[in-house]
UniProtKB/TrEMBL annotation:
<dbReference type="InterPro" id="IPR036135">
    <property type="entry name" value="MoeA_linker/N_sf"/>
</dbReference>
<dbReference type="InterPro" id="IPR005110">
    <property type="entry name" value="MoeA_linker/N"/>
</dbReference>
<comment type="pathway">
    <text>Cofactor biosynthesis; molybdopterin biosynthesis.</text>
</comment>
<dbReference type="InterPro" id="IPR036425">
    <property type="entry name" value="MoaB/Mog-like_dom_sf"/>
</dbReference>
<dbReference type="GO" id="GO:0005829">
    <property type="term" value="C:cytosol"/>
</dbReference>
<feature type="domain" description="MoaB/Mog">
    <location>
        <begin position="167"/>
        <end position="304"/>
    </location>
</feature>
<dbReference type="Pfam" id="PF00994">
    <property type="entry name" value="MoCF_biosynth"/>
</dbReference>
<dbReference type="GO" id="GO:0061599">
    <property type="term" value="F:molybdopterin molybdotransferase activity"/>
</dbReference>
<dbReference type="InterPro" id="IPR001453">
    <property type="entry name" value="MoaB/Mog_dom"/>
</dbReference>
<dbReference type="InterPro" id="IPR005111">
    <property type="entry name" value="MoeA_C_domain_IV"/>
</dbReference>
<dbReference type="InterPro" id="IPR008284">
    <property type="entry name" value="MoCF_biosynth_CS"/>
</dbReference>
<protein>
    <submittedName>
        <fullName>Molybdopterin-binding protein</fullName>
    </submittedName>
</protein>
<dbReference type="Pfam" id="PF03453">
    <property type="entry name" value="MoeA_N"/>
</dbReference>
<keyword id="KW-0501">Molybdenum cofactor biosynthesis</keyword>
<dbReference type="InterPro" id="IPR038987">
    <property type="entry name" value="MoeA-like"/>
</dbReference>
<dbReference type="Pfam" id="PF03454">
    <property type="entry name" value="MoeA_C"/>
</dbReference>
<dbReference type="GO" id="GO:0006777">
    <property type="term" value="P:Mo-molybdopterin cofactor biosynthetic process"/>
</dbReference>
Length: 391
């Protein structure tokens, strides 16, 4: 057996990651249609003026406003050479207003308006949306679906976005890929798929490598490749203190183990290392612990590098039962939050629930920082972070 883990304070590890590792500062050009969830690396300016000319804002007739003076329901004014327009049509030179079709009487033999038009009425002037050279998106902007529509409408087809490459290595001789039936004691690999979804949502480019058996030589080869091809490497499983947990030793041989063991629950066996100046995070194989480490360590690092993890949604809720926590650890307690009359309630999930289904049943969690543990009585109002729909 290996030596016991030397636990580091959770807050210190977060600060270590931010201070010890700098962003690669790399960007790539990506098609606008594929850019949702990415972060702009440079300002984006419009190559076009939108609209390029004055256009009709209503269906009706383009007119010269001065010729409609005095028009009313009792005094229709005959239109002089009106131009029929639909919403979005260009306004011909010399015309400065649109009379809505609802305010017009007559037929092709002669049209009259029962309402006087003001100059510019029902017209979108040229450049009202954006002018050529105007800023559309600043640098560091998380691109939303609505931004894609604006970019394309302004004639932008490609956008420069930050690129952070994250490698994900699953390990374990008992692990099989999705689609295979595991034998006795086996398990289907899922941690790297979850990590890719979480980190990809923040704008990272993720590469999932093949499963590496419990062999130090094979793991070494995989980590060397992963470090060479990525800015951040996550190794799933092999981070604890068992006889087949080689991750810390391999990281130490190739570089430096900065932290092995963090005072956090779940996630205590996590590793933080450095190889060729790049961060390596060893995440526990236990899925709930793996997700906690990804959320609390990897995502904040990506945020420090300029990417955009989903901002946390927090609310106040009343505990339905007493929660106990070890004051020496940062603890993350899974909860089911629901609305009850005039307030939210938070029901802690049993700590004995060691299955991934606990993550499905939970829609929030409570972070209890180290030093604030002990007993939190039933009925206490706490601030929780929402992870799913509220019931």
């Amino acid at each position: 057996m290996r030596q016991r883990l030397n636990l580091a304070r959770f807050a210190d590890v977060q600060e270590l990651l931010r201070s010890a590792f700098q962003a690669a500062g790399r960007s790539i050009q990506t098609p606008v249609a594929d850019a949702a969830g990415r972060v702009t690396a440079a300002p984006v300016y419009s190559p076009l003026t939108i609209p390029a000319t004055d256009i009709a804002a209503r269906d009706g007739f383009a007119v010269k406003s001065r010729e409609t003076l005095g028009a009313s329901g009792r005094n229709p004014v005959r239109l002089q050479n009106p131009k029929r327009v639909n919403t979005g049509n260009a306004i011909s030179p010399g015309y400065d207003a649109v009379v809505m079709i609802e305010d017009v009487t007559g037929d092709e033999g002669g049209w009259s308006t029962v309402k006087a038009a003001r100059p510019g009425e029902h017209i979108h002037p040229a450049g009202v949306e954006v002018r050529q050279g105007d800023l559309i998106l600043p640098a560091g902007h998380w691109i939303r679906p609505c931004d894609i529509g604006v970019l394309l409408s302004c004639g932008v087809t490609g956008v420069e976005v930050l690129e952070v490459r994250v490698g994900l290595i699953p390990t374990g001789s008992e692990v099989v890929p999705a689609g295979e039936i595991p034998g006795p004691g086996g398990v289907i690999e899922s941690n790297t798929a979850v990590a890719a979804a979480m980190l990809g949502e923040a704008g990272a480019t993720c590469t999932r490598y093949g499963i590496v058996a419990d062999d130090p030589g094979l793991l070494r080869e995989a980590i060397v490749r992963g470090i060479r091809e990525n800015d951040l490497l996550l190794v799933s499983a092999g981070s604890s203190a068992g006889t087949r947990d080689f991750t810390a030793d391999v990281i130490g041989d190739l570089g430096e183990v900065l932290v092995h063991g963090i005072a956090m629950k779940p996630g205590k066996p996590a590793i933080v290392g450095k190889i060729n100046g790049k961060p390596v995070i060893g995440i526990p194989g236990y899925p709930i612990a793996a997700i906690t480490v990804i959320r609390e360590l990897a995502l904040p690092l990506l945020a420090a590098w300029g990417l955009a993890p989903r901002p946390p949604q927090r609310l106040s809720a009343r505990l339905t039962e007493t929660v106990t926590a070890d004051p020496g650890y940062d603890e993350f307690v899974l909860l089911t939050v629901s609305w009850s009359g005039d307030h939210y309630t938070a029901a802690p999930l049993p700590r004995s629930s060691r299955t991934q289904m606990a993550l499905v049943r939970a829609n929030a969690f409570l972070h209890i920082p180290a030093g604030r543990g002990g007993v939190i009585p039933e009925g206490t109002v706490v601030e929780v972070e929402v992870t799913g729909p509220r019931v």
